[in-house]
Amino acid sequence: MTSAPDIPYGEAMRLALAEAVAAGERGEVPVGAVVLDAAGEVLAAAGNDRESAADPTGHAEVLALRAAARSRGSWRLDGCTLVVTLEPCTMCAGAAVLARVDRIVYGAVDVKGGAVGSLWDVVRDRRLNHRPEVVMGVMAEECAAILTTFFATRRIR
Ligand SMILES: [Zn+2]
């Protein structure tokens, strides 16, 4: 395995992975997200919280974006990077656009519901006036493996 510091956004993805694992241990689908500021400092980190919060919008990305905005004191997260273990869904891709993040970095591809290149490409729709840069496939194998293991052991889909 390549060590995280050698991979662009590897350190942040390691943190997102830790959030994902913690979410899985709480019985959540193991997805984790981190928001970095323009200097690469961590503004927020979160894991899925949909089950325990009984919140259909309790995805890691939304929670991390909310926490980052709170810590900044502004809903605008320009200059920031959203790092997430799984390709964002339509809601989270939309939230990232609304937060004006500069960049979305993700690990595993979600062919069944991904909205950042797979099923849809919400964030690079030319009709939008804000289009974040996308970096995909960062530590994709590790990110996918925790999901595969989770679903294999829990038999949920
Ligand atoms: Zn989502």
Summary?
The chain is of the alpha/beta class. The protein contains 5 helices and 5 strands; from the N terminus they run αββααβαββα.
Q: Any overview of this molecule?
A:
- The chain is α/β, with parallel strands linked by helices.
- It has five helices and five strands.
- It has helices at residues 10-25, 50-53, 60-72, 90-98, 140-154; strands spanning 32-36, 42-47, 81-86, 103-108, 133-136.
- It has a five-stranded mixed β-sheet with strand order 2-1-3-4-5.
- Helix 4 links the parallel strand 3 (81-86) and strand 4.
- It is globular, with a radius of gyration of 14 Å.
- It starts with 9 loop residues before the first helix and ends with a helix.
- The structure holds zinc ion.
- Residues 59, 61, 88-89, 91-92 line the site of zinc ion (ZN).
- Zn(2+) binds at residues 59, 89, 92.
- Belongs to the cytidine and deoxycytidylate deaminase family.
- GO terms for molecular function: tRNA-specific adenosine-34 deaminase activity.
- It comes from Nonomuraea roseoviolacea subsp. carminata.
Considering the chains and any ligands shown, give keywords for the structure.
alpha/beta; 36% helix
